Design the sequence.
């Protein structure tokens, strides 16, 4: 009645190294809404506040707080204009934001491979 054989318990995640180490990712974009924002902006050159809000199911206040954090970090740029006297806020992913997202995705892929024992 001892411990299960190693192969039945899955990979030993204590042995993760390099990119797969659990603390090695950018915590700023790890938050669900911010990750959704940078991911959406990675596949769309520009999205308005309303488009992001609708796509992510966020509230105005929640989206604006998280957008500001990404903007302060230099991951997204924000441009405010008026269209027919109506305010329009547009967001774009910056080069720095693309780089951080790519590193984050590389890290998550390494974690997945390690967890699967690949």
Sequence:
């Amino acid at each position: 009645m001892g411990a299960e054989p190693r192969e039945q318990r899955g990979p030993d995640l204590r042995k993760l190294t390099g990119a797969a180490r659990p603390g090695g990712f950018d915590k700023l974009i790890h938050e669900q809404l911010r990750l959704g924002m940078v991911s959406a902006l990675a596949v769309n050159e520009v999205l308005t506040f309303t488009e992001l809000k609708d796509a992510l199911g966020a509230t105005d206040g929640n989206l604006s707080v998280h957008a500001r954090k990404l903007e302060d970090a230099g991951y997204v740029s924000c441009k405010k204009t008026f269209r027919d006297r109506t305010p329009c806020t547009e967001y774009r992913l910056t080069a720095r934001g693309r780089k951080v997202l790519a590193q984050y995705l590389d890290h998550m892929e390494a974690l997945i491979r390690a967890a699967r024992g690949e």
